[in-house]
Design goal:
3 helices; two-stranded antiparallel ribbon; Bacterial Protein-export protein SecB; elongated; alpha+beta
């Protein structure tokens, strides 16, 4: 559990509440692995194209306790270049429960879109790698994701779209 002391102004506490960021649990909500062209795909030259789509979402579990669920929904499609056919597809939903207390609303939205997924993503990468190997394919290592840049891009799109506030109930997407 990480606690941040509230800033002081003129020797007085700005707020009596401490800032708390803590992780309660990580869990796999849903997972799917498909390899539609096995076993014949194993006889093809392994020169894959990898596409992935990532969406982030969050929901309030308990406003009084500052509990939030953060979800990463990832779809990975691996295709062979020649002949053009899918080798395998992985879809998963990795989630975590976090406590965020004492932060302003904008800071909470920022933490839900950046810091929380940052802690979840290693589990996503491990699951994808393991599923590829268990499916008989070489390990697939997903590249790191800059969640700060992804969130900044999301905020920029919202500004262009009419100045809505950053609502994380809407997914953030990277293709």
């Amino acid at each position: 559990m990480t606690k941040h002391a509230a800033p002081k102004m003129n020797g007085q506490d700005k707020s009596a509440e401490e800032k708390v960021f803590s992780i309660h649990n990580f869990y796999l909500k849903d997972v799917s692995f498909e390899a539609p062209h096995t076993p014949h795909i194993f006889r093809e030259e392994w020169r894959p194209d990898v596409d992935f789509d990532i969406q982030l979402g969050s929901q309030v579990l308990s406003p009084e306790e500052g509990l939030y669920e953060v979800l990463i929904h990832l779809t990975v499609t691996v295709r062979l270049k020649k002949p053009e056919k899918p080798a395998f597809l992985v879809e998963l939903k990795q989630a975590g429960i976090f406590t965020l207390k004492g932060f302003e609303e904008s800071a909470i939205k920022h933490l839900l879109a950046t810091e929380c997924p940052y802690h979840l993503f290693p589990f996503v990468r491990e699951t994808v790698t393991n599923l590829a190997q268990r499916g008989g394919f070489p390990p697939l290592l997903l590249p790191p994701i800059n969640f700060e840049a992804l969130y900044a891009k999301h905020l920029e799109k919202e500004k262009e779209g009419g100045g809505k506030s950053g609502n994380l109930e809407q997914p953030l997407t990277q293709a």
